[in-house]
Amino acid sequence: MKQISNDIFQINLGSVNVFLVGDTLIDTGFKGSTEKIFSALTKAGKEPHDIKRIILTHCHPDHTGSAAELKAILKVPVYAHEQDAILIEDGIGGGRMHLTPGIINWLVYQLIIKKAGNSIDPLFIDVKVKDGDMIDDMRVIHTPGHSDGHISLLIKDVLIAADICANVTGLAYSTLYEDIKQGRESILRAASFNFEKAVFGHGGPILKDAAKKLYKKFA
Ligand SMILES: [Zn+2]
Ligand SMILES: [Zn+2]
After folding, report:
1. What CDD domains does UniProt report for this protein, alphabetically (predicted)?
2. Ligand 2: distance of its center to the CA of 148 in Å?
3. Element (H, E) at 4
């Protein structure tokens, strides 16, 4: 686990990150990630049952794949945006996507995304959230484009950006978008908030001037 701030940790599961914010787990990785998440928690001196809630940033299988299993084991409520919640409850891992141009995107799609397919173990979303909702001290920012019901979360000076863009080999668009134009608008809207650090579903964190860097890259 990589510490991002006082109570925010990034757990790297290989091709995707999940986050622990206090007692909240944000995203769950592909199906089969439960043990990896639990062992990361244990290594950091925490316990699986310290998790009191799960928030899903969006419906894609690399973020929701282990949600049903984790919910069954931990018996905690799961939150997601109302638009992606409908898909998750039907076991659908996303709408029609378009590949962002570039060789790396093509490779990521061929090697990881295509293989994962588009179905997930369905689960009931206990709390459907929308833009502006507060979950304790986390502000929900609806950031559609990558998926219709994609959310980012703002916690003090940290943005959990999820897949609005990626930071694998520097800041860049995510590999896939339902609507990249809308995705860009969402990045810029997220960047209009005040935060120093940003973390992503894919790639490393930005620990300084993150809002400014996002704006500069995509404006
Ligand atoms: Zn995604
Ligand atoms: Zn992702």
Report:
1. yflN-like_MBL-fold (cd07721)
2. 14
3. strand 2-5
Least confident of 42-46, 143-147, 201-205: 42-46
Ligand nearest to the CA of 62: 2
Task: Mention every residue, 6+ apart, whose C-beta is less than 8 A from residue 210.
Answer: 159, 195, 196, 197, 198
3-class DSSP state for residue 116?
A: helix
Distance CA 95, CA 217 (A): 27
Alpha carbons 68 and 119: distance in angstroms, whole number: 12
- Please give the Cα distance from 113 to 107 (Å, whole number): 9
**Percentage of residues in the chain having pLDDT higher than 70:** 100
Q: Are 132 and 140 in contact (CB under 8 A)?
A: yes
Task: Classify residue 46 by burial, with Cβ atoms within 10 Å: 0-12, 13-18, 19+.
Answer: middle
Return the ligand number nearest the Cα of 93: 1
What CATH class does 2-218 carry?
A: alpha beta
* Mean pLDDT of the region 52-70: 98
Q: How far is the CA of 97 from the centre of ligand 1 (A)?
A: 10
Q: What are the structure tokens assigned to 206, written together?
A: 């930005």
Question: What value does the mean pLDDT take over residues 109-117?
Answer: 85
Average pLDDT over residues 88-103: 94
Q: Do 161 and 191 meet the contact criterion of CB atoms below 8 Å apart?
A: no
Ligand 1 center to residue 132 CA distance, Å?
Answer: 21
Domain boundaries, the chain: 2-218
User: How far does the centroid of ligand 2 lie from the alpha carbon of residue 205, in Å?
Assistant: 15
